[in-house]
Write a structure and sequence with these properties.
single chain; alpha+beta; Beta-lactamase; Methane Monooxygenase Hydroxylase, Chain G, domain 1; 3-stranded antiparallel beta sheet; 12 helices; 15 strands
């Protein structure tokens, strides 16, 4: 049985709150979302939020099993005040931070060789690796051997091996070249770790400090946590924890071309470049600078979107043509099939039709 799509609670966090129908989403369409997922326990959905025309118009939280990185949290009843793992959505935020560094002239251009930032690893350089530049890191096309297709519980997973290595950055750079730089996309969280290290070297600030001063504070985001490696460095690959409402602010920032309240936090040029297709990604997706680019078909209408994706079923969709942001948080760490399905159901069955029929 469908129920009314409730208006989100008003909180002092900068969001303008309006009911779905007043905010540009069809409440009747959205009314089926909560009953479906309350009756579908295997989906382990934790949160679903929608922002239309810059206003928070739908927000629903659920109860389910969850983890904070490697710490089991048990059965959690989620609400707007709780932090949630973002996992690899962290990569897209790291890309935004890198863009801010480029905007500020800390990094001259994206064609700079990666090894120019790591003279301490000159012994690992080869003629093939010398061709790897910053653009190849951002598009995951560096050509280095890497395997994250294995479960993270498998110690042979390349990200696991990087985390366990005495020197994670050396571990990434010592991997052999298996294809020419720029030739093809291959998912590689180690490349994000290198971007974070370069950001820290060029800004001379720890990543979390740089993020707070240049991105989070300007957006009014005050409550975040970072998982750290054994050496104390922030995990900018998959270690960020944040309230879903605050993640939606980042999606709105991208939708608005990097601006908020007449302040340009990230340049429009970087937003446009980083969310444009650069390489063929996995399946039918294109890939930008740590952003996924896809499309959906609703009532024979093709709708393009930008997405940040996190292991476990975490998704943020940005739909420029509909002025829409959708945030989905789940806990599907042991169910790779449902990980992609839950976000797609919310986007294609509820969010997009609700926007198109409002």
């Amino acid at each position: 049985m469908e129920e009314p799509a409730n208006t989100p609670d008003q909180q002092d966090d900068g969001w303008v709150i309006v009911p779905p129908d007043a905010g540009g989403l069809n409440a009747n369409v959205l009314g089926g979302l909560a009953p479906q997922f309350e009756g579908w326990s295997d989906a382990n959905l934790h949160a679903a939020l929608m922002v239309r025309h810059g206003r928070l118009v739908y927000e629903r939280y659920f109860t389910g099993e969850d983890w904070a990185w490697a710490t089991h949290l048990g059965h959690v009843t989620y609400h707007a005040g709780l932090l949630h793992d973002l996992r690899s959505i962290t990569k897209s935020i790291t890309s935004l931070l890198f863009g801010i560094a480029v905007d500020r002239g800390l990094i001259r251009n994206l064609d700079e060789p990666v090894f120019s930032f790591f003279p301490e690893y000159a012994d690992l350089n080869t003629p093939e690796k010398e061709r790897i530049n910053l653009r190849h890191l951002l598009t995951m096309s560096a050509g280095l051997a890497w395997n994250e297709q294995l479960p993270y519980s498998n110690p042979a997973n390349s990200e696991r091996r990087m985390i366990d290595a005495p020197d994670p950055h050396r571990y990434v750079l010592e991997q052999p070249s298996v294809r020419p730089a720029g030739a093809a996309y291959a998912y590689n969280g180690g490349l994000t770790a290198l971007l974070a290290a370069i950001l820290q070297k060029t800004s001379r600030y720890p990543i979390d400090v740089f993020a707070n001063e240049t991105l989070f504070e300007p957006l009014g985001i005050q409550d975040v946590e970072w998982i750290r490696y054994a050496d104390g460095m922030v995990n900018a690959v998959s270690g960020l924890r944040m309230r879903p409402r605050d993640l939606a602010k980042i999606g709105q920032l991208v939708l608005d071309g990097g601006a908020r309240d007449n302040s340009q936090i990230v340049s429009r040029a970087w937003i446009e470049e980083s969310t444009s297709p650069h390489v063929n990604g996995e399946s039918l997706f294109f890939y930008g600078f740590h952003w996924w680019l896809g499309r959906s078909l609703v009532n024979r209408q093709e709708i393009k979107w930008i997405s940040a994706v996190g292991y476990g079923g975490h998704r943020m969709y940005i739909v420029p043509s509909l002025d829409l942001v959708v945030v989905v948080m789940a806990g599907l760490y042991d169910n790779p099939i449902l990980q992609s399905m839950v976000g797609e159901v919310i986007l294609r069955r509820y969010a997009l039709p609700a926007a198109l029929t409002a």
